[in-house]
């Protein structure tokens, strides 16, 4: 979506309520028309830089920090509990819990990359998750699922926006939480979440459509990880 650039000067104004990005002195608003007041000045600075980097037309898709912050206000805050539930629900079918049964090399690669992350979640949140072979669903312990939900709910509305984007892009709430907690970096989450697809490409060759999809998800993961890091500063 593009619109004509209608401003000249981008700035950040700090008040007791937070940090507002202004365009020619007027605070920016979310797509839902709410004034966007950011909790972190580094995030506000980056959002302002996104607006300042626009040319004659404003390309909203080129402003991921603005999009994630706006989502927090327009979509997360009005239905916070439902968003927490949506993120935590990934714990029932988390990518890291569903392992190949063969070939042996893929089984070993999954165990090497994925199991330490499940072990970390078990220790960090007291949330051990069961592992299964194949695609048959496995029932996860309800206590573990409750612990995962509690961990997700530790994020404020702004954090939930980034965590939701990470979880959806990774297919794993464990990976998303590990990025939030700085246990792993964004590129490690990319590699873990795309392990199976990369394996298939190694065996059968690259597919342009699949490569494009993986790159889009990689971009989403890095954007959400950067957004969460800016909230922490």
Q: Could you give the topology of this structure?
A:
Layout (H helix, E strand, L loop, with lengths): L1 E3 L5 E6 L2 E6 L2 E2 L9 E2 L2 H12 L4 E3 L4 H13 L3 H9 L9 E2 L4 H22 L6 E2 L8 H11 L4 H14 L2 H8 L5 H8 L1 H10 L3 H25 L1
Parallel strand pairs: 7-8
Antiparallel strand pairs: 1-6, 2-3, 3-4, 3-5
Architecture overview:
The chain is α+β, with helices and mostly antiparallel strands. The protein has two domains: 2-62, ATP12-like, CATH 3.30.2180.10; 79-232, ATP12 ATPase (ATP12-like fold), CATH 1.10.3580.10. 57% of the residues lie in helices and 11% in strands. The protein has ten helices and eight strands. It has helices at residues 41-52, 64-76, 80-88, 104-125, 142-152, 157-170, 173-180, 186-193, 195-204, 208-232; strands spanning 2-4, 10-15, 18-23, 26-27, 37-38, 57-59, 98-99, 132-133. A hairpin with a 2-residue loop joins strand 2 (10-15) and strand 3 (18-23). Helix 6 (157-170) crosses helix 7 and helix 8 runs antiparallel to helix 10 (208-232).
Key words describing this protein structure:
single chain; 233 residues; alpha+beta; ATP12-like; ATP12-like fold; 2 domains; two-stranded antiparallel sheet; 10 helices; 11% strand; globular
């Amino acid at each position: 979506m593009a619109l004509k650039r209608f401003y000249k000067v981008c700035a950040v104004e700090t008040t007791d309520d937070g940090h507002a990005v202004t365009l020619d002195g007027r605070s920016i608003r979310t797509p839902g028309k709410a004034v966007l007041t950011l909790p972190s000045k580094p995030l506000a600075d980056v959002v302002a830089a996104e607006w300042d980097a626009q040319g004659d037309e404003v390309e909203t898709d080129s402003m991921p920090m603005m999009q994630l912050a706006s989502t927090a206000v327009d979509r997360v805050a009005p239905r916070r509990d439902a968003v927490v539930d949506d993120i935590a629900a990934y714990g029932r079918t988390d990518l890291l819990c569903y392992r190949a049964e063969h070939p042996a090399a893929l089984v070993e690669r999954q165990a090497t990359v994925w199991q330490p992350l499940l072990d970390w979640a078990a220790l960090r949140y007291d949330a051990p998750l069961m592992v299964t072979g194949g695609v048959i669903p496995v029932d996860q312990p309800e206590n573990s699922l409750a612990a995962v939900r509690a961990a997700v709910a530790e994020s404020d509305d702004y954090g939930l926006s980034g965590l939701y984007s990470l979880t959806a892009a990774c297919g794993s709430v464990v990976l998303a939480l590990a990025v939030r907690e700085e246990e792993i970096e964004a590129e490690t989450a990319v590699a873990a979440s795309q392990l199976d697809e990369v394996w298939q490409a190694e065996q059968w060759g690259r597919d342009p459509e699949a490569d494009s999809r993986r790159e889009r998800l990689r971009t989403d993961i890095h954007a959400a990880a950067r957004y969460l890091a800016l909230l922490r500063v």
